[in-house]
Amino acid sequence: MSVYDHGFVRVSGAVPVVRIADPRANAEATIELMRRAAADGSALIVFPELGLCGYSIDDLVQQDALLDGCLEALAAVVEASRGIRSVVAVGLPLVVGDGLFNTAVAIQDGVILGVVPKSYLPNYREFYEQRYFAAARDATVDTCVVLGQRVPFGPDLLFTAADLPGFVLHLEVCEDGWVPIPPSVPAALGGATVLANLSGSPVTVGKEAYRLSLCSSHSARCVAAHLYVAAGFGESTTDLAWDGDALITENGSLLARSERFAMDSQIISADVDLDRLRQERMRMISLRDQAGDLSAELKSLRRIEFAFDGRDTAAVESAEPGFAHADSLRRTVPRFPFVPSGLADRDERCAEVGHIQVQGLAARLRSTGLDKIVIGVSGGLDSTLALLVAVDTFDRLGLPRTNILAYTMPGFATGGATLARAHVLMDTLGVSGAELDIRPSCEQMLADLGHPYSRGEKVFDVTFENVQAGERTSHLFRLANHHGGIVLGTGDLSELALGWCTYGVGDQMSHYNVNSSVPKTLVQHQIRWMISTGTYASETTAALVEILEDVISPELIPPGEDGAVQSTEDTVGPYELHDFFLYHLTRYGNRPSKIAYLAQQTWGPRSRGLPWDSEAVESRNSYDDDTIEHWLGVFLKRFMGNQFKRTAMPNGPKIGSGGSLSPRGDWRSPSDASARVWLDQLRSME
Ligand SMILES: Nc1ncnc2c1ncn2[C@@H]1O[C@H](COP(=O)(O)OP(=O)(O)OC[C@H]2O[C@@H]([n+]3cccc(C(=O)O)c3)[C@H](O)[C@@H]2O)[C@@H](O)[C@H]1O
Ligand SMILES: Nc1ncnc2c1ncn2[C@@H]1O[C@H](COP(=O)(O)OP(=O)(O)OP(=O)(O)O)[C@@H](O)[C@H]1O
Ligand SMILES: NC(=O)CC[C@H](N)C(=O)O
After folding, report:
1. Which of 16, 257, 259, 475 could form a disulfide with 29 if both were Cys (CB 3.0 to 4.6 A apart)?
2. What is the Cα gyration radius of the chain?
């Protein structure tokens, strides 16, 4: 299966070793790299500015011999492109009418699709381009004849693929991307999703970081993919140095970057997610509003239609490189999309999560005028995180920790170790801790209901479970009335997504919930990080470590004869997969088949995800294709079926961009929708 079947397009930037003023040699290097990138499944291959002659050619660019040589080099590239369905963008000087233009030429399969002249010619400091070139605005024609073909000519060309939905290419030339309103901005507003910049950019200290920020913010502002490919080794060192910097960015993220200062040719490539760009643009109504403001200009953009064709027929060995063999995804998909990946910014990101939670609770306490909270402490993950956040909040507000009224409430299935941990946490954190036995009130309710358990039968059904969750919540709310506090909710985002909580009179309800935007994988990560800060006493830390290591369990059903405790993940599936599914479903609106594909690429035995050592997690699990599809089916059914629990959820702060299921925050959905279209789409993979 090809990446192209899942809304991706593979794009490449090629940085050849240049020979100044030797178009034939440059054509050979270009052809070699073009063939390699095409055979690798790239639909787009971008070369540097004036790559066929070299950027640092100065006055030689006006020599007829050189200009003839460039045309011959272009002819060689066009000829060599026959049978190649990739679009190839090369840079060369071209005479059109009376002017000499610095151009990017788009070529596909022996055809020139169009010629884009540079709009903004730098003429400051080391640059002298206005000495040689005419700018795009000086052109008096909008077509030109190149190598006997009449082709569109101008900075307003959108190369639109008829058979790859969402692939619309725009080309510009170096300085065009450094001005306040690059030509690619109206192009993007007019529909271009892939913006390529052919560059000749000498390196000076600090430019590397500047280029990264320029390219990445341009891709973010335009909600597009951006390829920037600068000239490298072989450019003239008369007065300057060249680092061959090439970057592929997508909506603010860096997908690939060349090795700078390499002395050999190189190709960088990455798979751009066209679905993601479409989804983001579709949602960003302000972007469409701006397109509307500029509609007269945008309507005049010229759309040059072409087809990639045969992209699922050819194989690597084929003389006609198709794209079918691009089967393993060339981009990094984080296994834990909610968890900061990499260790570099881990402290900052985790601290930020904590700040948001603390800020939410502090503001709510201030606005209610109350100075106490009531919380049920189970000795499990969620209530532990909420308790730590509460402690931090009270410290910051200058309120005594004893105003945190913590209750551990053992039920029919509470394990001794869990109960002990709850006590350790409450004692060592200095909050007001108490133990409340909910069994008598649960027994009373089960008897009132006529439940078989009250007659001594071992019937552990959902009523049996929810009676306990309900009695706990009922106690907490009445304690809050009694003591003048608010009930702090603990349920996390993953539980809300799966409906794994007891509705109404149950853990679904609280006065304010600091965890409602924190998925389970992030709850685990936050606790792990908090341990690493060394903030807590050794006894507290030991309890936190045990909590992280224990099986995740609601402890509502007593252990079986084998002593095994009720495991949440045995019933609903692995949280690490569900968090992955949740992120891709709600953040990007991905089809189930794409979510499964991404999960298989990321969590499969031969994973393309980040190397484990760059992700600050301890799990090292992998899942086969069938397991992923099975749990995705479970997720979709539960996600759709449990919307009613989210529609009525309490207030709580939104923490991550893909992390809110509040109907007031970021997720509005009917409580009675069918899951069929998602399940059918998933089954269509089989
Ligand atoms: N669309 C809809 N709109 C309005 N109401 C709807 C509805 N669909 C079902 N309902 C009603 O809601 C009821 C189902 O919801 P609910 O009463 O919550 O019950 P339910 O979701 O069946 O059970 C709660 C589940 O959460 C688990 N749990 C509870 C507490 C803590 C934890 C934990 O580990 O964190 C896990 C527990 O093990 C159990 O499996 C249905 O019986 C029906 O009456
Ligand atoms: N034995 C208990 N004592 C006090 N409160 C409890 C107890 N069991 C559950 N609760 C309350 O109900 C909430 C939901 O229970 P649940 O089992 O989902 O949470 P948890 O144990 O904190 O975390 P996790 O589900 O991640 O193990 C808890 O966070 C806690 O506030
Ligand atoms: N070739 C160009 O247009 C180079 C200009 C650009 N500002 C740079 O310094 O990289």
Report:
1. 16
2. 30
The verdict on 471 and 605 lying in the same domain is yes
Read off the pLDDT band of 320 (50, 70, 90): very low
Nearest CA to ligand 3 atom 9: 201
Is 19 part of any domain? yes
- CATH number of the domain encompassing residue 19: 3.60.110.10
pTM above 0.80, yes or no: yes
What residues contact residue 626 under an 8 Å CB cut-off, 6+ apart?
A: none
Flag whether 338 is in a domain.
no
Of how many residues is the chain composed? 686
513 annotated ligand binder? no
8 A C-beta contact, residue 225 and residue 272: yes
Q: Whose CA is nearest to atom 29 of ligand 2?
A: 383
State whether 60 and 137 are in the same domain. yes
Ligand nearest to the CA of 381: 2
Give the closest residue to 258 by CA, choosing from 218, 286, 230, 294: 230
210 is in an annotated binding site: no
The SS3 of residue 45 is: strand
In a shared domain, residues 382 and 512: yes
User: Ligand 2 centroid vs 507 CA: distance in angstroms?
Assistant: 8
Range of the domain at 105: 3-315
Q: Whose CA is nearest to atom 2 of ligand 2?
A: 378
Domain of 450, CATH number, reads: 3.40.50.620
Nearest Cα to Cα of residue 463 among 476, 448, 451: 451
Q: Which residues are catalytic?
A: 49, 118, 174
∠ CA 164-165-169, rounded to 5° = 75
**pLDDT of res. 283:** 94
Q: Would you state the pLDDT for residue 391?
A: 98
**Cβ of 414 below 6 Å from ligand 2:** yes
What number is the average pLDDT over the span 475-480?
98
Q: What is the pLDDT of residues 495-534, one digit of tens each?
A: 999 999 999 999 999 999 999 999 999 999 999 999 999 9
How does DSSP assign 20-82, residue by residue? TT-HHHHHHHHHHHHHHHHHTT-SEEE--TTTTT-STTGGGGG-HHHHHHHHHHHHHHHHHTT
Q: Is 258 annotated as a binding residue?
A: no
ipTM for the assembly: 0.92
Residue 320 covered by a domain: no
pLDDT at 608: 66
Give Cβ neighbours of residue 206 (< 8 Å, ≥ 6 apart).
Answer: none
645 and 510 share one domain: yes
At 292, list the tokens: 């509307």
Q: Tell me: do 427 and 300 sit in the same domain.
A: no
In this structure, the answer to whether residues 274 and 370 fall within a common structural domain is no
Residues 423 and 477 in one domain: yes
Distance between CA atoms of residues 526 and 655, nearest Å: 13
Q: Does the pLDDT at position 627 exceed 50?
A: yes
> Ligand 3 in contact with 176 (CB < 6 A)?
no
Number of domains in the chain: 2
Question: What residue type is assigned to position 246 of the chain?
Answer: A
